[in-house]
Amino acid sequence: MEQRDFGDYLRHFDYDERKAMKIQLPEMLKLYADGSAQVIDIRFNQEFAAWQVGLGQHIPLNELPDRLDELDPEKTIVAMRPHYDRAEIARLYLTMQGFHARYLTDGILGIANHLRGDIARDYMALVND
Q: Do residues 77 and 38 lie in contact, with contact meaning Cβ atoms separated by under 8 Å?
């Protein structure tokens, strides 16, 4: 995996990259279900201890540089948290490290809202098939 230069990244940043850096919940769930995405919850430990959604791996943003070996370079890495700010910081950092990374536009709150009731049952059936 080759690290990227931030200046070079900015020189080539365009509308296609702006679109590619984001992922919406339906696409993320599909990639996660078929094993092509690794989802990371980048909230701080205190936030994670307060509540979890049961999806993804917890790697706090401030621990990310020291835990890159836990990420699969063959998968799309999806960073998530309740809002996009830290998720985008994580995505940009991972991109500079050579990973294919995106951030979840719907955030963890979107997952919690989406995966309840019959939708959660149907999704878990899909994942466990």
A: yes
